Amino acid sequence: MRMETRNITSPIGPHGSGSGSGDQPARQQLLSGVTLVNRYTIQDVIGIGGMGSVYRARDMHFPNVVKLVAVKEMINMAPDPLVRQTIVQNFEREANLLATLHHPSIPRIYDYFSHDDRSYLVLEFIQGRDLETVINEANGFLVEDQVISWGIQLCDVLEYLHAHKPDPIIFRDMKPSNVMINHNGDVVLVDFGIAKTFQTGIKGTMIGTEGYSPPEQYRGDATPLADVYALGATLHHALTRRDPRLEPPFTFAERPIRRINSNVSIEMEAVINTALNYNPGERFPNAAAMKEALMNVARKTGALSAMAISTLPAAVGSSIKPLWSFKCEDEIRGTPTLSQGVLYIGCYDNNLYALNAADGKFQWKYPTEGGIVSRPLVYENNVFFCSEDQRLHVVGARTGKLLWTYYTEGKIYSSPRISDGHIFIGSDDQDLHAVNVNSGRVVWKFTTDGPIHSTPLIANEMIYFGNETGSFYGLDFRGTMKWRFQAKRGMTSSPVLKGQTIYAASLDGTLYALDAKSGWAIWKFRLGKGTVSSPVLTDDLIFIGAADGFVYCVDGRTSKEVWRYKTDNQVSSSPAIYKDSLYIGSVDGFIYCLEYRTGRLRWKFETASAITGSPVIFDDIVYFGSTDHHVYALFA
Amino acid sequence: MADFFRKLFGSKEESTKPRPMDTATTAPLTDQQIQSIISSQAPKYEIKQLVASVGQSVGKQRDHNEDSLLALTNTISGTSESVPFGLYIVADGMGGHQFGEVASNAAIRIVGGNIMKKFHSFLYKLPTQALQESLQEVMESSIMEAHQYIQREAPGSGTTITAALALGQQVTIGHVGDSRAYAVYQDGRIEPLTRDHSLVKRLEELGHLSKDEVESFPHRNVLIRALGQGETLEADIFTVPFPQPGYLMICSDGLWGVVNEKDIVRILNEAPTLSRACQGMVEAANAAGGPDNISVILAQIIG
Known about the structure:
- The complex is a heterodimer of chains A (636) and B (303).
- Chain A is of the alpha+beta class and 636 residues long.
- Helices cover 15% and strands 33% of the residues of chain A.
- Among the domains of chain A are: 125 residues, 2-Layer Sandwich (Phosphorylase Kinase, domain 1), CATH 3.30.200; 185 residues, Orthogonal Bundle (Transferase(Phosphotransferase), domain 1); 120 residues, Lipocalin, CATH 2.40.128.630.
- In chain A, strands 1-2-3-4-6-5 form a six-stranded antiparallel β-sheet, covered by helices on one side.
- Chain A is globular.
- Chain A starts with 34 loop residues before the first strand and ends with a strand.
- The relative contact order of chain A is 0.07.
- The N terminus of chain A is likely disordered.
- Chain B has a single domain, classed as Phosphatase 2c, domain 1 (4-Layer Sandwich), CATH 3.60.40.10.
- Chain B has a five-stranded antiparallel β-sheet with strand order 1-10-9-6-7.
- In chain B, a hairpin with a 2-residue loop joins strand 4 and strand 5.
- The N and C termini of chain B lie far apart (44 Å).
- About 5% of the residues of chain B have low confidence.
């Protein structure tokens, strides 16, 4: 990650030879191999600014994996002790503020510390290039759709910053070199003004980069509308390749975008012109309004539905190397569980495996007498899972030694759920079983009219689940039915809940939204074919796969389709959301990583056979099993 | 003063009468009942119940009423399976068109009647059975039926419609035009649930108008979507949690275009009952000139 602190009042020397070249010994760069606070080993210099360097470093607290971080250095050169103290305090205050921000386009902050004359910030390491480099290295103009998509993401992060309470955060320095484009092709804002706090009082307090800043910022006013203007300037630069720093200030109107790049749509030009109005009152009232305007352009140009067009093509197949893989004796059809650095997964060789999540090393396995598709559950240092041998097994998480089993009268495909001292499981004996978690004794059974494959949902002191004849039940904790809903075919899909609404899908090809209190269908969404995939929810969006090969994204309020993505075979796997990506397997053998807001493919990875289980993501690593007998771990 | 009232209520109105309460109507529950419900801090009603009230006025500058409203609160109490059910609709017939009141009246009757027909057996038969259609499907097909009826029977006219079907603790809203549904929370927050289908809103969304320009835009009443207008109609249909603790409010532009949100919240908070709140809002709109017909529905889940 390059985080520069270039400022109009403090020009910097050429890259790599500037401020560190020995004018003052105190400003010397750290050498690679140096370890800070016994934890961060410096690997390389990735940027230089007026107040110090930015380094790529490895976090040695994770000896088993290579965890990279960016370490941003600030050298405190103030001679007055009081000023020095103020600078350190300002730095720590700013670091604390940054730590409260959570947005996919803002790097995470991990740590900060000061020693001697230097203060350090430890941040998420962003792999990619900054937008200025992307503009300079492109052959010809950037594609409009791509710039629209980045523009929308930048409005989104500005909207987030401006909505910060109690005071809005004004970024103040929007420009291409402060916008990183990561390996997924998404934007990340870097340089959050820590350096600016350091520089106050050096030579006036003018902040912002000449050429990108609006007129009022030169009078010292930094408002959300200043960020809107600078974003307009950034997008203008990206579409025209004309660097505003080389032009007289506020002359964008003299360089109409379409006169330079006639491929740009009239609508896009109009949006940027609005953002660049000299008078703040004539710009968009806020970043949200500009985002909405860009979304409207995207709808018109088709950028929204065709976000797949990207200057940074999605990585596919062989370019991705798994972190590790582990081979079992037979197909893996289920979903793993991760707990305390151990990955648990069931297999059709009848074993439950425990693997070290960091390197895939075998820890132990526990044999049952049937295939295991049920997802294990770790609870109080024990692993709970079910098998086609009709039993619920409880084994020690560390040892793999059996504690007890519980028999049902049919095969079990459902995964156990634990709540309030009870385990709930559905079985092919058509009963939902409530079992005491300590004694292993049945508390009650609820008899339905078909085998139960779906995993029960426990919420609001209710138990919700479907069965293979298409009945869907709401039970209270005593096992009394409160309501029942009937789909046309089986409900294998496991329900999820948001607020007062339950979402579950059926083999009849419908995704249902049901009222949790009454079981009323609030809406129905038609999938191309039936499904056994279970929905997941994020924001107001619902994601699910179906046998027609599509992954669907549906608006939970309106039941309108937001996007769909086609794989080459049935999707039985359930999606998993991590950060701003969706991960899902397909019977075509691929695991897919899609941008969850747009459905744009980020990468896919091929295994030798169908993937029916669901991925699990933890700490930027995706874990999943395939019917090619392997368990895989990939970088998310 | 006498002139003032004569103008307001027509020549038949006696100027000596005590100050009248506009033409507000009330819900089946009496004020006293509602007051005791609202003032009781401890939830005495274990079973959630819906209460509602309405207010309507022709305003001060129109000679007839083109707004229609329907408010139906169904309480079946006694079994734990019974859920609150309410249907609340405001329709504002289009002023310039010849059949404005026909359109708005047809809209509430057809949409209301259709929805009640579907729910009749669920509410008033034993054993109850669930509907085949989803709530959103029922809402959408009812609005489409009203749309087609108005096109056929009152050509050239149009109406807005904002219909809320409250079932359990969620509310499914069907919306066309610039009447509005709001969630008003007890802490004073007020959020529009609907988006106006009006030219001014569209221009604002496109960034062509700033907040100040919106206020003074000359064509504030131009709709871009209305029931009865256009070959195809796309209603906004969505489901949201019923605002709790708070109120669901549905009103025509005769209220929201004249009384600002802050005053609406203030009137609501100061009124001892829902029906007084409705009256207060109608009075406020008339006090501000009453340029248009005024309709308002307030609904609340108690317990």
